[in-house]
Structures are given as structure tokens and as C-alpha cells.
Amino acid sequence: MRAFLGVLACSLTVLSVHGLYSASDDVVELNPSNFNREVMQSDSLWLVEFYAPWCGHCKNLAPEWKKAATALKGIVKVGAVDADQHNSLGGQYGVRGFPTIKIFAANKHKPEDYQGGRSSQAIVDSALNALRSLVKDRLGGKTGGSDSGRQSGGGAGNKKDVVELTDDNFDSTVLDSGDVWMVEFFAPWCGHCKNLEPEWMAAATEIKEQTKGKVKLGAVDATVHQGLASRYGIRGFPTIKIFRKGEEPEDYQGGRTRSDIVAHAMDLFSDNIPPPELREILNEDILKKTCEDYQLCIISVLPHILDTGASGRNSYLEVMRTMAEKYKKKMWGWLWTEAGAQMELESALGIGGFGYPAMAAINARKMKFALLRGSFSETGIHEFLRELSVGRGSTATVGGGALPKINTVEPWDGKDGVLPTEDDIDLSDVDLDDLEKVEL
């Protein structure tokens, strides 16, 4: 999986960064390959931190997390996911900021959000309270531990979660669907297909629960529905293909165990996560939180409403939303403001001298920024952000070396601007006699 989100260095180079934990720590490093085996199929209670190596709050938490893991060793499992590198896991559990901590207790498919403090003592206390509740539930006869079955051959799953596909229902069920489909073409006599069946069934149940039905697994008996098999060029069994609406099907090249199938499905699911929110800079908290919580914050300064009207402004905002969607897996923050509303911000970024709209990408940890020099269009912004992603482009230090003061303003009401009327102009301090004097 590509993992090139790192710290924005002086050249805005996006680097691969080592995780915050090592093999010598009592914190278990989790990733898409081992998450199901270690957490989902375990009877243990787990505390899992989703972090990014560049996140300052994560770095502050790391020593406390390690202390808590050592104190809880043999009692409660403590793990960590580099969600910057393994964003499929972060997307799977709705992680939008770092660090995010989840408690995987009785129902592993519905982990609880950790609400405690960030000290090792607070973490241990919360873990023991969660463990006490888990034990009490088991004592009362409630199911505890993993409910997702076991791996390789003994996997539990609901056969109904694998959708039976035929020549008659394939187009309406798969091709017309807005969901992602993984479809197995099999033959009943095929030994490899028989080995895959329990894994496919168990994966289908787990994927249905974890993606809320946004990724579906289906199966086609290619010996019966030969039209479909011929249509997609099936030559051997089992063959697995991935279908997304409006795109050509692609061959699945991953492993055949449930964990392999689930991991790939979660990657597909992360491709469909919602884009980040595009927020107007209304106060200092919005700018500070966005720029400090995300690796980069992308800020646009749009022309005054009197210059563009509502339709013109909405066209610029639509360009931003399109690009936020395109780059959503980067987990960047997206902001905008009106020209003249935040003059200190414009000054700190050197914006204004070359016109509006303008765009800057800020790394608040390095206090470095880069400016869009091309057109404010999908093509121009894509080239700008692509250059940042591969470590190219000129940068500068944010003026003053810190985020500037932000004015509190009213949100845009979505309407065209209105010119001030004569009643809005105060002439009380104007000497009208002076207006009659004209120097030649």
C-alpha cells in the first residue's frame, strides 16, 4: 500500500516516517494483515490507538501509551495502528483525527470510543473499568470475545451474506449498484473453489458488518451461467473480479484467506470514504484545529462576493470540493475565506499581491507553506497538490513563524453581495466647506 504521507520538510518533501513504537515495546503494532487475527478473533479486550507519526499529540501520547501497555501486560491488550500508512483501517473505524483510541470489548464489530485522559494512569483505569464490564457481562451469560469466527477453514459466516449471482440478476444487482462488488466465479467440482468457500463466506459476513454493506461479496456458478463466464473471459476457477460502477472490472490479485479478502475489501472501502469537510474560516479555533490536526491544511482565499456573486463563488467552492474528494485519502484539512476578511493571514502567506482566488498549503508543524502558482482549476490545483505529494515545489516560512491572528466573522449566507447604500455612509465628520475648495 502506498504510504508516502509524512512530515512536510523544508522542501515540503513528504517522507515515509518510522512508527512511534518498536518490537521492544509492549504495544502491539497492528496492520491490515494481522488486525483480524490479533484483535477481531481474540477473546481479549483491546485498547487500540490510531495514530500518525507526524502528529504532535500522538508523539506526546506515545510514552504514556507504552507505560500503560507494560502495566496491563497479560491483562488487557494494547495496540497501535499507523493510520497514516494503513489508512484502510483508519477509514474502516471512522478515524478522522489523531490520535483516536478505540476499545474493542465484547462486540468487536462495534468498538467504543475511548473518552478518558491521556496519562498512563487514566488509560489503565479506563482499561480496567472496561475489563470489569466485560467480565460482568460474561458472568451474566452475555457473549464475550470474538464473534467473527476463526480463521482458515473454521471461519464462521452467514451463507446468505454471499449473494448468488446469475445471468438474469447480474446487471441489476452488480453493474447498476453504487456499491463495490467482489465476485467469485467458481465451478462446483473445483477443489480450490471448495477450499475458498468457507473463507469467502466468513469474509462476506465480516465485510458486510464492517462496511455497512458498501462492499459486497457475490458468487457465480460459471458452469451454469456460462453467459457471464464468457462475458468476463473466465478461463480458470476460482476467478475473482472487482466491480465498481462506471469502471471496467479488475482482477483480484490478493490472497485467498478470509483476512486477505477482508483487508483488500477495506482498501476498496477506504476509496469510498466521504471527502473532508470544506470549512469557512470564521474564527481562530477553526484555523488552529484544522491546521494542527492534519498534516497539511489547504487554504483558499476567494474573491470578494461583490466581485463574483454567489454563482461565481459556488463555482470556486465546487472546484475545492472536487479536489478534496480526489485527495481525501491524504486526510488533509480544507479551508476557505473571503479576500480581505483575514488580512493578517493573507500577509503571512504572501497572498493578495497577485490576485484572487489564491491557494496555499500549510504545514503547521514546520510553519512552512507553498503557494499555488498555476490556475485555480481542477487541472492547476491537481498539479500543485501532486507536486507537493512527491516532494517538489518551492516553500517559504509562514510570516512571523506562527499562525496569524484570525478575525471572528459571520459565515457567508450563500447570497449575492449587496452594495452599501447612502444611508450606510456616515458624513458627520466631513467638512462640506472643504469639498467646495478646488485646487488647480
TrEMBL record:
Q: Which residues form the signal peptide?
A: 1-19
Example GO CC term: the record gives:
endoplasmic reticulum lumen
Q: Which Pfam families match?
A: Thioredox_PDIA6_C, Thioredoxin
Which enzyme type, at the first EC level? isomerase
The GO annotation for biological process reads:
response to endoplasmic reticulum stress
Q: Which GO terms describe its molecular function?
A: protein disulfide isomerase activity; protein-disulfide reductase activity
Question: EC annotation?
Answer: 5.3.4.1
Q: State the reactions this protein catalyses.
A: Catalyzes the rearrangement of -S-S- bonds in proteins
Amino acid composition bias (Gly residues), ranges on this chain: 141-157
Function noted in UniProt = May function as a chaperone that inhibits aggregation of misfolded proteins. Negatively regulates the unfolded protein response (UPR) through binding to UPR sensors such as ERN1, which in turn inactivates ERN1 signaling. May also regulate the UPR via the EIF2AK3 UPR sensor. Plays a role in platelet aggregation and activation by agonists such as convulxin, collagen and thrombin.
Any idea what this protein is called? Protein disulfide-isomerase A6
Q: Which organism is it from?
A: Carassius auratus
Give the organism's phylogenetic lineage.
Answer: Eukaryota, Metazoa, Chordata, Craniata, Vertebrata
